[in-house]
Specification:
With 211 residues, the chain is an alpha+beta fold. The chain has 6 helices and 6 strands; from the N terminus they run αααββαβαβββα.
Length: 211
């Protein structure tokens, strides 16, 4: 049995009007770079490693979105990629697409008081690295999808022919880019730490590691 309150006709009309206005105004569902930079998005400790790992795993081409969930140690917990449908840039549609992928690959964290996992979005597109309204819609969609899935909203990264860039932070690099092949080291496990002791054995290990 379900209990609840029936909304008044005035409230229903107001809600319907608000939804209609939102649906008719996709420009309202995007974030400007200044808004994104002031939103307290957590910084990636090693963005190039994250970008290279996602690039090697999903091999994105233009119009491919890769959403990834990182744990507290910035290890990859889950990821999914999909092709953006040819339609006007709308944060609401992007939010729904991202949320569907998140629900498919990882359980939500809505029962936690404070999010412990972070979702990041890598979007491969044509054009240069400058912010576009499409980027603003992806930012809006990522932030909203994270809220609805109990995650922290993390970095939004573009991948173009010029390279990769973490928008709002000014960090980026030339490789990988939208035309490059995955780098072999991106999927390799980190080598074991070298022994601290000195001597001939340590010198041989250091030379081998440098090759």
């Amino acid at each position: 049995m379900t209990f609840g309150f029936a909304p008044s006709s005035a409230a229903s009309l107001s809600t319907s009007a608000d939804l209609s206005a939102a649906s008719a105004n996709p420009v309202a569902r995007m974030l400007e770079p200044a808004e994104w930079a002031s939103a307290g998005i957590p910084l990636l400790r090693n963005p190039r490693e994250v970008v290279s790992g996602l690039h090697a795993r999903h091999r994105p081409r233009p119009s491919t979105a890769v959403v990834a969930v990182l744990d507290q140690d910035e290890r990859l917990a889950a990821s999914a990629s999909f092709i953006r449908r040819p339609a006007p840039a709308d944060g609401w549609l992007f939010r729904n697409a991202l949320l569907a992928q998140l629900r498919r690959v990882i359980p939500h964290d809505l029962r936690r008081r404070t999010p412990v996992r972070t979702a990041v979005l890598l979007y491969c597109r044509d054009g240069d690295a400058r912010w576009t309204e499409e980027d603003g819609a992806w930012m809006w969609g990522l932030r909203d999808a994270c809220t609805l899935h109990g995650l922290r909203c993390g970095a939004y990264i573009t991948l173009t022919r010029d390279g990769w860039q973490v928008l709002g932070e000014g960090r980026g690099g030339r490789r990988p880019n939208s035309e490059s092949l995955p780098e072999p080291f991106a999927t390799a496990e980190a080598p074991p730490p070298l022994p601290r002791a000195g001597g001939a054995t340590s010198e041989v290990l250091r030379r081998a590691a440098a090759r």
